[in-house]
Amino acid sequence: MFEPVVTVRDANIYQGDNLVLSDVSFTIERGEFVYLVGKTGTGKSSLLKTLYGELSLKEGDATVAGYNLRDMNWKKVPFLRRNLGVVFQDFQLLTDRNVNENLRFVLKATGWKDEKLIEEKIADVLGKVGLKSKGFKMTFELSGGEQQRIDIARALLNSPKLILADEPTGNLDPETSDEIMQLLVSICKDYGTSIIMATHDFMVISKYPSRMLKTERGKVFDSAVAEV
Ligand SMILES: Nc1ncnc2c1ncn2[C@@H]1O[C@H](COP(=O)(O)OP(=O)(O)OP(=O)(O)O)[C@@H](O)[C@H]1O
């Protein structure tokens, strides 16, 4: 059966008691690449945090990768997260271990037990991000662009239907940003993964134009519905 990866209907997004975004409604289909733009402090991260279960949804409805977020029991959040990949601006890799161990850590934490399958999966995701030979490097030995690729490899471990990326090119020079964008766009195309990417980087958007959700004055505007 045909099913969108994200459906949000009349959702109100809060930070504590503060209403950050109201009446949010949009749908994202499989394989769609969607930018999330808007001035600083307008609610991009709050929306992403709601979609990955860090902020709870108390008003309105949302379904992400088949999980209903409304009043979701916190015990279900890890299961939601297994179906998502999350990529951050600051990589958030563990600095006291090498690349393979970083990836193994996530697989173990998400229930993988078979060592052979774990090794195959690690080789698979490192191949997808073009860093097959870097498994034994400590993360601090990698460049910023390489660290971001490892962060993306980590997001791919559980073959997610959706990747949420919060300013993944924010700390990178223009050339490296471009390489990361090519990688994200190809993941979207080749594997049908949907991607929502928060960004302030209009160079990137003009080179890789795609649908935009814009946070402004407490609302989300959708370029699929009207010009933003
Ligand atoms: N942990 C928090 N507790 C309370 N309020 C918060 C928290 N995090 C963010 N906010 C508030 O929520 C609003 C939206 O912030 P948010 O971080 O979602 O914006 P953003 O668009 O992602 O900004 P940026 O582009 O700077 O990352 C802001 O008014 C911010 O001050």
How would you describe the overall organization of this protein?
GO terms for molecular function: ATP binding; ATP hydrolysis activity; transmembrane transporter activity. By secondary structure, the chain is of the alpha/beta class. It has a domain at 1-83 and 195-228: P-loop containing nucleotide triphosphate hydrolases (Rossmann fold, 3-Layer(aba) Sandwich). Helices cover 33% and strands 26% of the residues. The protein contains 7 helices and 10 strands. The strands form 2 sheets. A 6-stranded mixed beta sheet has the order 6-7-8-3-9-10. A 4-stranded antiparallel beta sheet has the order 2-1-4-5, covered by helices on one side. Strand 9 (211-216) and strand 10 (219-222) form a beta hairpin. Helix 5 runs parallel beside helix 6. The chain starts with 5 loop residues before the first strand and ends in a 6-residue tail after the last strand. The protein binds adenosine-5'-triphosphate. Adenosine-5'-triphosphate binds at residues 15-16, 18, 20, 38, 40-46, 215. The site of adenosine-5'-triphosphate (ATP) has 13 residues, from strand 2 and helix 1.
How is the topology of this model organized?
Blueprint: E1 6-15, E2 18-28, E3 33-37, H1 44-51, E4 59-64, E5 67-68, H2 77-82, E6 84-88, H3 99-109, H4 115-128, H5 144-156, E7 162-166, H6 174-191, E8 194-198, H7 202-207, E9 211-216, E10 219-222
Parallel strand pairs: 3-8, 3-9, 6-7, 7-8
Antiparallel strand pairs: 1-2, 1-4, 4-5, 9-10
Helix pairs in contact: 4-5, 5-6
Adenosine-5'-triphosphate binds next to β2 and α1.
